[in-house]
Amino acid sequence: MNKILADVHSCLRAGTPTLPGHGDTIARWRRLAGITADHTVVGRLYEAHADAVAITAELGQHELVRPGQLWGVWAAEPPTPVLRAQHSGQGWTLTGTKPWCSGASLCTHALVTATVSTTDTPAAQGDDAEASDDVPHKVLFAVDLSSPGVTPVPDTWHAVGMAASDSGWVSFEQVHATPLGTHADYLDRAGFWHGGIGVAACWYGAARAVAAPLLARASTPSASPILRAHAGAVAAALSASWALLERTAASVDAEPTNLPLAKAQAFAVRTLIDRMAAEVIDRTGRALGPGPLASDAAHAQRVADLSIYIRQSHAETDEAALPAVMAEDGLSWDDLIRDGHGTW
C-alpha cells in the first residue's frame, strides 16, 4: 500500500466526521481542513469518502459504506467522454469512460453518475415504450471497483499538482452497478451544497499550510516591512475565511434542509476561499521569492496541489451564478449576508 493510501486509511480509522447539518458542522469542516493542511492529497481523498458517507446516508443507504473501504465520488459531466448505463434482466451495467476520477486506482468503491436513456428504465421496457420518450438523463450509481471491467486509463492526468490523487479517467465495460437515485436526487439536496462547502474547507486547510513559511518568517526579527505586510494580509484573509466557515456552519446546523440558502452559501463561501487561496499562493511567493519553491519539496508540492485543487471552483462563472441563484430562489441579500436577521 502506498503512503498516501496508508495515510488516508489511518485517517478513516480515526472515524469520519459528523454529517453536515447534524449539530457540529464546524467540527466536520475543521477536520477536513486539518487533514488537508497536513497533506493536500490525503485531505482530498478523505473528503470524497466523507462526502460519500453523507450522500448515501441522505439517500437512505446508511449501511452502504463499510469499514475498510475507500469511496470516491465521480460525478464530473463534461460533454465527452460519456459513461452510459443500461438495464437488462440481470440489472444495471455501466459502459464507457468517466473522466477526472480522484483515487482512480486507489478507491475500492465509488458513487458514479452515468447517462441513462428513458427507455432503458425498467418502467419503460414494455411494448408501449416510444422512442420519442427516449430523453437521456443522469442517474447516480454505486460501483464496486474490484468488479471485472473497471480499468483506470493511464496517462490521463498530466498536471504536476494533485498528481498523487490519481485523478485520471476510468473505463467501464459492462460493469454491474446499483442505482441510488436520479441526478436530481443527488443534486437537489441541501447536503450537496454543504458538501461543496466541505471542499472549500479543504482549500482553506491547504492554504493555511502554504502560508506557514511566510507567517513563520514574518515572526523573526529580521523580517522586512514588505514581508510583514504580505504576512499581515495573508493572516487577515485566512482569519476572515475561517470566520465565514464558522458562521456558515452555524447556519447549516440551524437550517439543514434549506436548499436555496445552502446553494447561495456554497457559491459565496467557495468564491471567497478560492480567491483567498490564490492570494495566499501569490503573496507567499512574492514575499519569499523562489527559495521555498526551489528548495522545499513539500512546500512546492503544496503550492502545485492547491493551485489545481481550487480550480474545482468555476471562478467568475460561479460568482455570476450567485446573484442568479438569489433571484431564482427569491432570496434577499440579507438572507445571505445577515442570515436573515435584521436589515442594514
From TrEMBL:
Domain Acyl-CoA oxidase/dehydrogenase middle: 85-175
Gene3D superfamilies linked to this entry: Butyryl-CoA Dehydrogenase, subunit A, domain 2 (2.40.110.10)
Pfam family name, one: Acyl-CoA_dh_M
Superkingdom of the organism of origin: Bacteria
The name this protein goes by in its record: Alkylation response protein AidB-like acyl-CoA dehydrogenase
Organism: Nesterenkonia halotolerans
